[in-house]
Amino acid sequence: MGCFHSKVARQPPGHEDPVVLASQTAFSVSEVEALYELFKMISSSVVDDGLISKEEFQLALFKNRKKENLFANRIFDLFDVKQKGVIDFGDFVRSLNVFHPNAPQEDKINFAFKLYDLDSTGFIERQEVKQMLIALLCESEMKLADETIEIILDKTFIEADVDQDGKIDKSEWQNFVSRNPSLLKIMTLPYLRDITTTFPSFVFNSEVDEIAT
Amino acid sequence: VAPVTMNAFELISTSQGLNLSTLFEK
After folding, report:
1. Does A78 reach chain B within 8 Å, measured CB to CB?
2. DSSP H helical ranges for A27-141
3. What are the pLDDT digits (tens) for A7-40?
4. For all residues of chain A together, what is the average pLDDT?
């Protein structure tokens, strides 16, 4: 039988109890503690303050802090649940939980919708999709003529925007994704299954006396 | 696959900024 007695006074500010976080997510207590090892690495890469700044997030993602990227910014803003300009450990675990292979499909669909709804109007508009395509071309070697971008947008909106009002609402998005399940591939991180083997040092820093998996 | 045969979201999802697996690379 697992028996959890949290030790006190070892947690930095903003660090939530792993037992509580495990109870709210698909992660076990050990996995939350292993995620804390990753969190500590990222959050101390520029300033060791127990919080992930946008710069630290970009550094972890691209191994290059100068690389501005629309999509990385968008992910950061969605992880920054409390809109504080930084990601604390609770935000980090709850947000990564959506990317867990066992997370509900509906959570993944909703997260992807928010990701692409750049101005948070509740709709993915054609102009937003165009902006994302242009951002993609800027970051990659790919070159597409403006007419080609418009053809891609036409094709996409004919398929996704069922009522043809020029924007994709949540239910249109759900239908579109169910017909194109590969779109959700980015929403699952198989790495999250092996987090305790990737960061085994969590065992030495464990805050619970006994760890049940 | 030629990009023009892909829909916009398939293309967008190839962005490096959406590939969170790199967070786990030490």
Report:
1. no
2. 29-43, 54-62, 70-79, 89-98, 105-116, 126-139
3. 444 566 667 899 999 999 999 999 999 999 999 9
4. 90
Between the alpha carbon of residue A184 and those of residues A45, A106, A115, A171, B14, the distances in Å are 30, 11, 12, 15, 12
Whether B2 and chain A come into contact, CB under 8 Å, resolves to: no
Which pLDDT score is estimated for A210? 53
CA A17, CA A33: separation in Å to the nearest integer? 10
Q: What is the ipTM of this complex?
A: 0.89
* Distance separating alpha carbons of residues A175 and A159, to the nearest angstrom: 10
Quick check: A173 pLDDT over 80?
yes
Using a CB-CB distance cutoff of 8 angstroms, which residues of chain A are in contact with residue B2?
Answer: none
Indicate the residue of A62, A70, A148 with minimum beta-carbon distance to B4. Answer: A148
Helices (H) and strands (E) in chain B, counts: 1, 0
Q: Cα(A68)–Cα(A58) distance, rounded to whole angstroms?
A: 8
Q: Are A56 and A72 in contact (CB under 8 A)?
A: no
